[in-house]
Automatic annotation (TrEMBL):
Coiled coil: none annotated. This is GntR family transcriptional regulator. InterPro entries: Bact_HTH_transcr_reg (IPR050679), Chorismate_lyase_/UTRA_dom_sf (IPR028978), Tscrpt_reg_HTH_GntR (IPR000524), UTRA (IPR011663), WH-like_DNA-bd_sf (IPR036388), WH_DNA-bd_sf (IPR036390). It comes from the Bacteria. Residues 8-76 form the HTH gntR-type domain. SUPFAM superfamilies: Chorismate lyase-like, Winged helix' DNA-binding domain. PANTHER family: MANNOSYL-D-GLYCERATE TRANSPORT/METABOLISM SYSTEM REPRESSOR MNGR-RELATED, MANNOSYL-D-GLYCERATE TRANSPORT_METABOLISM SYSTEM REPRESSOR MNGR-RELATED. The keyword Transcription applies.
């Protein structure tokens, strides 16, 4: 129960009780949290106190409000520095989530004018398009769309891409994707998008679900373009940190 004469505010005590129930596994992902009225009566506190506790847990990502349905335990959010090359795998593993990848498409296609410019392609070059769904803890989290020069990266058509793409490039081909200021990669953008039919189906979310849309051109340590990246990430389960 809550201690009235404690230095810790009542709303914080209540938030701690609910948080501990989630981290201990007593409350699991998808479980519905009792209503404000039920919590108010159970712990003999005002609804204002309950609301403050709930808002703190929503802000910290432990629970999520669904309009007209109630408040539920949410999946853990993956926290990642706001840098494109911050390791997706490392960020997930830091949250206790194992990463797996599923290849959806691997094909050769004609480049658009903007692709030729971004990747500095020869006139007779083509694109390799690789689409993967990246899973965290068994659940889809990111839809990854990468575009490479066919002339430079045609080996990707036959390589095992079930693991880290950047580790493969570094370890086997001595190609080192870089986020350094000298790479020329100063135009990575992050926007909010809504899941359309393809994204919704592959990420297993409802159409219209909020997604982060990340677009970038990645260079190597010799200032040569490596790939164009266009990624969709489930907003509910991801947060970026500015360091």
């Amino acid at each position: 129960m809550l201690i009235q004469d404690n230095i810790i505010p009542l709303y914080q005590q209540l938030a701690d009780i609910i948080r501990n129930s989630i981290t201990s596994g007593e409350l699991k992902y998808g479980d519905k949290i009792p209503t404000e009225v039920e919590l108010s009566e159970k712990y003999n506190v005002s609804r204002i106190t309950v609301r403050a506790a709930i808002n703190e847990l929503v802000e910290s990502g432990f629970i999520i409000k669904k309009q007209g349905k109630g408040t539920f335990v949410s999946k853990p959010k993956v926290q990642r520095k706001i840098e494109y090359l911050s390791s997706f795998t490392a960020a997930c593993e830091a949250s206790g989530l194992k990463v797996t990848n599923e290849i959806i498409k691997r094909e050769v296609m004609e480049p658009k004018i903007e692709d030729k410019k971004a990747l500095e392609l020869d006139d007779d070059d083509k694109l390799i398009y690789i689409q993967r769904v990246r899973f965290a803890g068994g659940d889809p989290l990111m839809l990854e769309n990468n575009y490479f020069s066919f002339k430079r990266f045609n080996f990707l058509l036959t390589e095992d891409l079930s693991g880290s793409l950047y580790e493969l490039l570094r370890d086997k081909y001595d190609i080192n994707p870089s986020d350094s200021p000298n790479s020329g990669n100063d135009h990575t953008t992050i926007e909010i998008a809504k899941a359309m039919d393809e994204e919704a189906a592959l990420l297993m979310v409802q159409k219209g679900e909020p997604l982060f849309y990340i677009k970038t051109v990645i260079y190597d340590d010799k200032n040569r373009p490596v790939h164009i990246g266009k990624q969709y990430v489930i907003g509910e389960r991801y947060k970026f940190v500015i360091s």
